[in-house]
Amino acid sequence: MKKNNRISEVLLSTAEYLAALLDKGYPRVLNEVWEDVLLLQFHDILPGSSIGEVYEDAHAISAHSHERLNTYITEGIRTLHSGEGFDHPVFAAFNAGAFEREEWLEFEAEYKDMRAVDEEGNEYPTLFWLDKVRVKVKLPAWGFAYVHWRAGSGSISEAEPAANLCMENEHLKAEFTPQGTLSSLILKSTGREMLAQESNLIRLWEDEPNNWGAWDINHFYRDTVPWEPHEVKLIPQRCVQVEGCYHSLCFEIKIGSSTIIQQVELTDCAPYLKISHEVDWKEHHKMLRVHFYANVISDVASTEVAMGVYQRSTKPSNSFELAKFEFPAHTWVDLSQRDCGLALINDCKYGHRIVDNELEINLLRSPADVDPNADIHRHSYSYGILPHLGDRMQGGVLPQAHRFNTPVIVQEIAAKASFRLPEYSCQTEGVKLHTIKPADDSSGTVLRFYEYAGCDAELVLSLPEECQEAQLCDIRERLLESVTMDKGKLRLHFKPYEIKTLKLTKRGNK
Questions:
Q1: What does CATH list as the number for 422-510?
Q2: DSSP-based three-state secondary structure for 341
Q3: Predicted TM-score of the model (pTM)
């Protein structure tokens, strides 16, 4: 459910931005999907405390919502590209996020004997691994890049079998053990070891609270001895490397009655290790957790909440803090001292624990109180380990976590772009342009920002030339006050963690 919810949120944000580009008002289909997504966020559905029949319905509703959103996005991209036709294969890569990025995009093996070039004919770096062609593309924030496949062989590098259990790029060097654990993580800019001890430890804990098992986790599970993996082996065909560009290791891990396929990836496009799990989960009253031990000393940890950041004590000293042994966080948690830190990012997990220098993610549970077969099926999810200089802001934790959660959409197109992409230039550190969408009443475009550094900020926003009026609104888009524009720019002042909603009206709109 939680992964379905995260996917729904990302797809809705993408679809709303496309709707703003299409400029035809707020689509009815998105309103209908929002109603279904919010229904499934009911407090006994999303947390996992309903009966089995509820989840049969909930999974069907989620699948239908994802299908409708993907259809809307596909048709929207096609509509935006209805200009002059192409005589060769062309793909649009769409970054519906607030941060520019560089990614290895995946294409079918049939393009291996062709050249991947941009719109000016410059050849993209191209690799071949795990039966796919990968093209390295830079994408602007809230924008498109294009991959043209031309006849003729390009310069393509092929993956080789991984030589050892060491992975390295310009940012970090990681060493794994044959058990799939992380024995070393070096931040290369300083040569500092970022782990205090062996990490990425997968443990299976007893999960039998006194009451309300589907709702509660009791602190005394820590008094038990967790199960460790009883069998681990490498999967050689999925252990490959392209020197300086890509490295992959894959382990089959058996723990309890369950099996985990653990894929570890490191590319030259990201400063973090990405770990993906495919789990055949067969446990009852057990809890799967992953443990990391940071070489960092700090009394507080930073954790993401909706459009904000919350700091929590890592050294509980009273009953109130002791009661918070498990806490919720969204896409990242971070433990930093002044000069460096370690963050964990994820694509669908919310339960965490941080005490002293130990960081944990609660990966899976299987309470049987309400539904005897709760979560007894296959699961897939990913998390990342991000060592960084400085604190969470200097280390770029939030931008990296949000890139991690917003996949680039790659779609074949038959014609050139038939639209002009509006540019909302927003470069103020610590302020994120979170949402671009049509106004609920279809009378303009709404931009929603929030401050995440925890300090005052002055945002200078450059607007498209067709923008005639800008007004601040509340979060329900009720007008508050007009904002003065000067030569296509406006200024907004933010208090720490403040959310601001701005409504833009184009010339000709009522």
A1: 2.60.40.1180
A2: strand
A3: 0.94
